[in-house]
Amino acid sequence: MDSDRVMVALGYHGDSFHGSQTQPGIKTVEGSLTRALDRLDWWRPKCLEMSSRTDAGVSVRMNLARIDLPNEVAGSIQRANLLRALNDNLPIGMVAWGVKAIPEDTRIRHSISRHYLYRTEVSHDWPRGFDEDAFAEACSSLQGQHDFTNLCRLDEGKDPVRTVDECSPWVTDEGRIIGISVKSRAFLWNQVRRMASAVSGVASGRNTIEDIRLALERPNIPIDLGRAPSEGLILWSIENDHTSDIFDSSLPDTSWFTPPPDDIRQHTRWLSLARLEMSTLLEREWMRPLRRA
């Protein structure tokens, strides 16, 4: 590598970790990456920074980590060898699949866009038939700049205003709506999961589009539109000034995703299949760049 500072693209299965941030005595993404660097003797204080925080249960096709390598390593290691070394020391359920040298002043948390996919089919009240135009309208109502106080878990001191660049139906090649696709430069805690709950609520009749508008227009009046389960969420990609070589935001082939059963009593068993499908989707996505490495 021609720089001590590298950007590594990481993926992980949400059910393998208790979130991304380091927590004492708990298996997390950042903690697992720290241990891998320590085993390789690459660990130094402040050598690691993660781009995005994710909650327990949330799967990630692409997160980014900034790693400052020791000088003696950076000058000699090749891209494929760096990925191999990391993956030999990362736990099952987590993979490093891309790497690029970046300037020393790069802050990995600064992004142009973050892209999430949520499979609303996993919602417990997902209907067998619904008004697709109303679903699309519900998505559109969340686009633009809004105060998302009612659609997030707001950290103290955080600005609740965010700009959602895209919120649109996630659709299979056959035209079946399976969820939502959401893009923004930055999100609040639980924001996408609460947006997904609000939109799926329009499909099921649990809430209305007007409820969503009131939640946005009157943030000082609490309105609870629910929080969708974490297993439906995927952090799909992150775009910044240095991801052009590895960045791909195109939607995946989901033609093989099975629809929810008509019998609501079978939905719980189908959820196990849906989780397997989403895990398989991620593994397919990671294998492609690793084969080219």
TrEMBL record:
Enzyme category, top tier: isomerase
Domain of life: Archaea
Record flagged with keyword DNA-binding: no
Residues holding substrate: Y116
Pseudouridine synthase I TruA alpha/beta domain sequence ranges: 138-239
Active site: D55 (nucleophile)
Biological process, per Gene Ontology: tRNA pseudouridine synthesis
Protein purpose: Formation of pseudouridine at positions 38, 39 and 40 in the anticodon stem and loop of transfer RNAs.
PANTHER family: PSEUDOURIDYLATE SYNTHASE (PTHR11142), TRNA PSEUDOURIDINE SYNTHASE-LIKE 1 (PTHR11142:SF0)
Protein name: tRNA pseudouridine synthase A
Species per Swiss-Prot/TrEMBL record: uncultured marine group II/III euryarchaeote KM3_91_A10
